[in-house]
Specification:
Layout lengths: L2 H6 L1 H18 L3 H18 L29 H24 L3 H15 L4
Length: 123
């Protein structure tokens, strides 16, 4: 596999790993873990979405080809996938800090646990 193929497969490979872990979490009843993994898949999906031009509407991106409304996704490098995951960790860290500030240590602890889970996917 050449470097270009490896780079374009980074998001796809991570989502395969996440979805496999999601299936396991769901089968074993680990609902919090499943929720976090779903959020990670969604974050990567969002990062793969092509940006809109200023003069464009979301519906303009859909060019119906062969009966499909799918548009070509962006290819993410391993560094870009990592950046998405790091952003998810940072978001949880900010929320945990706020929860501690308002006296919700239990929620802050839960957010820290989520951060640890996200951290297992950062390479």
């Amino acid at each position: 596999m050449d470097i270009v193929t490896k780079m374009s497969d980074a998001a796809h490979s991570m989502k395969i790993r996440l979805r496999a872990d999601l299936r396991s979490a769901m089968k074993e009843g680990r609902t919090t873990e499943a929720r976090v993994i779903r959020a990670l898949v969604a974050a990567i999906d969002n990062a793969e979405a092509p940006p809109l031009r200023a003069d464009q509407q979301a519906t303009d991106l859909h060019r119906f080809r062969d009966g499909s409304a799918e548009i070509e996704r962006l290819s993410l490098t391993p560094a870009q996938v990592r950046a998405v995951l790091v952003a998810e960790m940072q978001e949880r860290e900010r929320a945990a800090t706020e929860m501690k500030r308002v006296g919700r240590a239990d929620r802050a602890d839960a957010l820290h646990a989520e951060m640890q889970l996200v951290g297992t996917y950062i390479e």
